[in-house]
Amino acid sequence: MNAPISIASAHEPRTAEVSRDTAETQITVSVNLDGHGQAELATGIGFFDHMLEQIARHGLIDLKVRAKGDLHIDGHHTVEDVGITLGQAVRKAVGDKRGITRYGHSYVPLDEALSRVVIDFSGRPGLVLDAHFTSGMVGAFDTQLVYEFFQGFANHALVSLHIDNLKGINAHHQVETIFKAFGRALRMALERDARAAGQIPSTKGTL
Fold it and tell me: What is the per-residue pLDDT across 76-133, written as a single tens digit (0 to 9) for each?
């Protein structure tokens, strides 16, 4: 069963730990949104660990992920459920969103590849992803799972997320630019806005 999520107040440290335990996966994710980009990762999928490290490093988020999944079948459940659990942890850590920038965006190149990510901590989940990967696999990672990871994250962090791979020939580069750009966009959106300290960044007064 999933651990219950209690939303932190704006005055508490922006940290959280969430566990997800199902018949398919056992996952624990901890985050510090005001960290230094440190990562401790063990999902059983090497390339996926490498991509999660990009989120931590470029998002300046301290991130720990421990995942045991049914990799004898494939990586689908593991990747999707890490996305879900990470989304829950970020949602819990960000609290009521007072004082955050709310919106973030980033363009990131890697050689011939270029990706753009735009995120809104809107409280309304949604994902639009446009990427045509040139290979179905990168190492042991199925590139179709990029969508599943970010769908899980968006649904449970309650964010609107737009991801576009604009250029790319090498699938490794395509995927890596997406994860790096996501980290940078996440960092921007979660930055504390000194001019709006203590304010909800919405005319509705809630997010």
Answer: 999 999 999 999 999 999 999 999 999 999 999 999 999 999 999 999 999 999 999 9
The CB density around residue 24, as the number of other CB atoms within 10 Å, is: 16
From its phi and psi, is residue 87 left (phi > 0), alpha (psi between -120 and 50) or beta?
Answer: alpha
* DSSP-derived secondary structure letter, 52: H
Token pair for 21: 């335990």
Distance CA 24, CA 81 (A): 9
CA distance 160 to 189: 12
H helical segments located in the chain: 46-59, 76-94, 145-157, 171-190
Torsion sign across C-alpha atoms 81, 167, 37, 126: negative
Question: Taking the chain, what is the end-to-end CA distance rounded to the nearest angstrom?
Answer: 27
Calculate mean pLDDT across residues 162-187. 98
Tokens coding 171: 């699938």
**Stretch 59-83: mean pLDDT, rounded?**
98
Sheet holding 126-130, edge to edge: 103-110, 113-120, 160-167, 126-130
Name the nearest CA neighbour of 161 among 116, 207, 201, 107: 116
